[in-house]
Amino acid sequence: MDANESVLRKKSYAFALRIVKLSRWLQDEKREFVLSRQLLRSGTAVGASIYEAEFAQSRADFINKLHIGLKEANEANYWLMLLHDAQYLNDRMFESIKPDADELVRLLVSSLKTLKTQS
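-> structure tokens emitted (119 positions)
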């Protein structure tokens, strides 16, 4: 595992933990269950895919797992924007977590570009 993958693991885990707490808050305080579950699923799947990639069966499988993580990070971004625009998340909350989601997307895109050029 190279340094970039280690950063991905750490940041995706920290992001997932924030998403779990946010989802719990949305359900307990805002009584919002549908969108928060979608966010919970996609936001925690990012890290799960990155962790799965560690034991990929091949280079292609590794790349595929990171692609799945990228798709989930992008989906989590969508749910965050929707929750913000639907006024479940105030500006402060949104601006606190959105950069983390954006950073995961950037890191995954960068990792995938690097992997593809090394082929």
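The chain has one domain: 3-117.
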